[in-house]
Amino acid sequence: MLSVASLLGSLLSRSSGGPTAKIGSFQWVHTSYNKPGLLLEMVQSVIPPITFISHKGLAGRIAVIGGSKEYTGAPYFAAISALKVGADLSHVFCTEGASTVIKSYSPELIVHPILESKFAVHETSEWLERMHAVVLGPGLGRDPVVCLDTAKNILEEVKKKNLPLVVDADGLFLVTEYPDLIKSYGKAILTPNIVEFGRLYEKMMGEKPKPEEPVLAVKVLSRALGNVTIVKKGPNDIISDGENVLVCCSEGSPRRCGGQGDLLSGAMGTFSYWAHQAIERGTDNALLSLYGPNLCAAYAACLLTKECNKQAYSQKRRSTTTSDMIDCIQSSFEALFE
């Protein structure tokens, strides 16, 4: 069995390049460069093979909770990304005003216009029995009934069913308002950008995070939330469960169009299901055993999103949009993982 030190040494010897932004004073942190080495092998170990004997649903049924009158693109981006990464079915639970628009974007998505119904929590809970992972937040909006009441109760149902959960966008607004909702839930991954991270950190710690020590800040916040996995998005995506840290610093692009975080969260939903399944089946991958399914899924989605961004930008430059990135999921997945 490889020791942690030998794993770190082996990874570093198989990597090249360096971080694209400051990660602080931490020396022994697993990072990805142009050649992610052992981390890449960890991700590859959880990806299910495509076979003729599998049936619809085995590769994942993902639920996206979000979509409102104002925001229809975000849940679409998350749900279609989950599907294109490799899930078999992708469901969107949204408001009635968003449903027709989301359906018009793609016939592949299953859309449930129920978030404003007085039976929304019960109806969604029944569907959750069939889901393998949940992405909560893309396009949810901040309506006090839908976001702060219905979504709050749906999140409780997700926890009761012990489903892998990715919380992004307005879902993070909900968690910042009610941090105990997510505290100590071991299958949750939060994906804040720098602004969302700052708000949640200040809510929990009573002070702003120190910009010169971003890795430490992520670890501290994770521990304050009961070791919930956090992905602080940025030039380097910092991932921590309060004990272990991964940093995805692979090349992306300088383009910052809206919707990239939705691609990330949808992809992460699929990877999260796969990683938890791999752990349940039993794994002989040393890093997966060390870091666990959440860090593996988060790292995989961050790496894929950056590769999509890089490939799309190489073709479209300043005109790059998230739709262009989604078109690159297949080629990016193959370049990285196959």
Fold topology:
Elements: H1 4-13, E1 30-32, H2 38-44, E2 61-65, H3 73-85, E3 89-94, H4 96-105, E4 110-113, H5 120-128, E5 133-136, H6 146-160, E6 165-167, H7 170-177, E7 188-190, H8 194-205, H9 214-224, E8 229-232, E9 237-240, E10 245-248, H10 260-281, H11 286-316, H12 322-327, H13 329-337
Parallel strand pairs: 1-10, 2-3, 2-5, 3-4, 5-6, 6-7, 7-8
Antiparallel strand pairs: 8-9, 9-10
What would you say this structure looks like, in words?
Residues 1-17 form the signal peptide. (6S)-NADPHX binds at residues 139, 193-199, 262. ATP binds at residues 233-237, 252-261. It catalyses: (6S)-NADHX + ATP = ADP + phosphate + NADH + H(+); (6S)-NADPHX + ATP = ADP + phosphate + NADPH + H(+). The protein has 338 residues and is of the alpha/beta class. The chain contains 13 helices and 10 strands. A 10-stranded mixed β-sheet has the order 1-10-9-8-7-6-5-2-3-4, with helices on both faces. Helix 11 packs across helix 13 (329-337). The protein starts with a helix and ends with a helix.
